[in-house]
Amino acid sequence: MAISPEPGAARSAVRSLSERVDLRARAAGPVERLIEASLLACGVVSILTTVGILSVLAGETWAFFAEVSLWDFLTDTEWTPLFAEKHFGIAPLLVGTLLTSTIAISVALPLGLIAAIYLSEFANPTTRAVLKPMLELLAGIPTIVYGYFALVTITPALQLVIPGLAGFNALGAGIVMGIMIMPMISSLCEDALYAVPQVLREGAYGLGASRLATIFQVVLPAARSGVLAAVTLAISRAVGETMIVAIAAGQQPRLTIDPRVPVETMTAYIVQISMGDTPAGTLEYRTIFAVGSTLFLITFIMNLISQRLASGYRASG
Amino acid sequence: MTLPPPSPSTREQLTASRSGSKLLERAFLVLCWICVFTPLLLLLYLVGETVLKGMERLSWDFLTSYPSRKPERAGIMAGLVGSVALIGLAASMALPLGVGAAVYLEEYGGRSRLARIIEVNIANLAGVPSVIYGLLGLGIFVRFLDLGRSLFAGAATLALLVLPVVIISSREAMRTVPDTLREAAYGLGATRWQVIRSIVLPQALPGILTGSILAVSRAMGETAPLVVVGALTFITFLPDGLSSPFTALPIQIFNWVSRPQAGFEINAAAGITVLLATLLTMNAGAIWIRHRAQRRL
After folding, report:
1. What is the pLDDT of residues B96-146, one digit of tens each?
2. Do residue B104 and residue A40 have CB atoms under 8 angstroms apart?
3. Which one in A161, A249, B115, B217 has a CA-CA gap of 20 to 30 Å to A143?
């Protein structure tokens, strides 16, 4: 192809080339289109998964509320579906879940945030490269193993300090869950801190600010929405966490905020019923879907809030 | 991001904290180290204690025995074989689907509406608690498709659970393939699929493998969805087909943890040791693949 100084000629040359390439692509048409369709089908499986989750939860929950009134579900203070005198108030399970999650977050947030500040603002690249995978190791341990730790080691150790701590309790389970969630908070917060433009730090230093003042008065406020996104996501994870609480927090739905006694979370209830042989179509079987729907709704809203907050800082950062 | 210019009061505020800042900074650094190392050392202690306790029971007999009512005669054979079968089946479903979906989103979908919907959907699925996937498996595979509480139902549930992880990590791997390589191939007249098959996938393979191993090792430790789908806790036979009842290593551990006798606690510790050793091997494999790929580039 001759190189022409005239832009018009070059453009037409490119056009004719692209037409030729297009022709070739069209020649391989049917096979290519079949491949694209089957790849798309793989993607559609994920949509079907969501449709499956929603329809299973909605179907069985609908059947549940045909027998139990929504009002009772929301206002009754007892959850006793297995007893002769049945009560279907979600409150004890909800409070149990919030209790263990609150304990977990109050352990994970300070640890995770300070670790993130250290990794993003102080640690040199080598230290970071060593510490980050080590912290991620914490998140890679299966939850069943954490449950065992909570029940067999942490709770007996806590019992030495806290008299009256039951063998199954929200405290031990919550603390262990906090350790499990900590790496998630630290990694997300670190991303948020990292996204804060360097000029802000330099501006603060230029005004004579110390390193700590820069971090706490400039960098952290600027990373606020990212940190909040991390915390919201962590709450969602804690609410949905199952095996630690099923093993170590107990199976007694109880409307209490006392961390020393056995409670039952929504997830632990689902596991408890699933361990038994529950025939489909019974009210007992449907309770786990009603509880599952509640759990799904809470985690979904939390995830949504977290995504909004995160996209906010990404857009402005 | 734009900030208003610093007012004089901001300046005072910032410089006021300068006095004694060196000492404060050092104190804060100590706090940092405490926050980083307390969880790590605690984990090290917990794992160490558990492995030491588990070593008491760990033997060839433990690996090759079925569950028993006597802790010293019980073993993890059924759980181990069940886990391997579950993971193998789940991977053979999730990997083709996940990589396929990732290829579609990265190479075909572009900015199309459907691709956007799939993308948002995957992000949301990744945040759904695993126990909810158990309810999905129970409702769809066990009841609706009438597969019963079978090995296949368990594996399919795990496959759907790890699918978002496989898709997300495969997409990241494909994104690291430079666009210049794709353009060069297109320039030579390759079709889209030819570019994907001979350029993108081979280049992204180490990344895809690493992500897949991590996803599969996550499935290996999952307990809650399998409990909900209906894994059994006391099985004295090995699965002989897709419709066979099943158990898994974490389920076996859960069962032992739930029993009050001290003997079973030792069994649980031994089971955990085997589980952690398996996961460590898988993760080491993933790191090795990544390392080899980086050296080659």
Report:
1. 999 999 999 998 877 788 888 998 899 899 999 999 999 999 999 998 998
2. yes
3. A161
Could you tell me if B84 lies within 8 Å of chain A, comparing CB atoms?
Answer: no
Can you list the domains of chain A with their CATH numbers?
Answer: 91-316 (1.10.3720.10)
Nearest to A208 among B14, B121, B275 (CB): B14
pLDDT in tens, A288-309: 999 999 999 999 999 999 988 8
pLDDT band of B293, cuts 50, 70, 90? confident
Indicate the residue type of A267.
T
**What single-letter DSSP state applies at residue A77?**
S
Q: Which of A202-211, A226-235, B52-61, B104-113 has the lowest mean pLDDT?
A: B104-113
pTM of the model: 0.88
Look up residue B255 and give its two tokens.
């069962």
| A60 touching chain B per CB within 8 A | yes
Reduced 3-state DSSP string for B201-259: HHHHHHHHHHHHHHHHHHHHHCCHHHHHHCCCCCCCCCCCCCCCCCCCHHHHHHHHHCC
Q: B220 and chain A: CB distance < 8 Å anywhere?
A: yes
Nearest to A53 by CA among B251, B227, B228: B228
In chain A, residues 68-107 whose CB comes closer than 8 Å to chain B: none
A209 CB within 8 Å of a chain B CB:
yes
Q: How close is the nearest chain A Cα to the Cα of B255, in Å?
A: 10
> Do A183 and A139 meet the contact criterion of CB atoms below 8 Å apart?
yes
The predicted pLDDT at position A5 comes to 46
Eight-class DSSP state of A223: T
Class of domain B82-248: mainly alpha
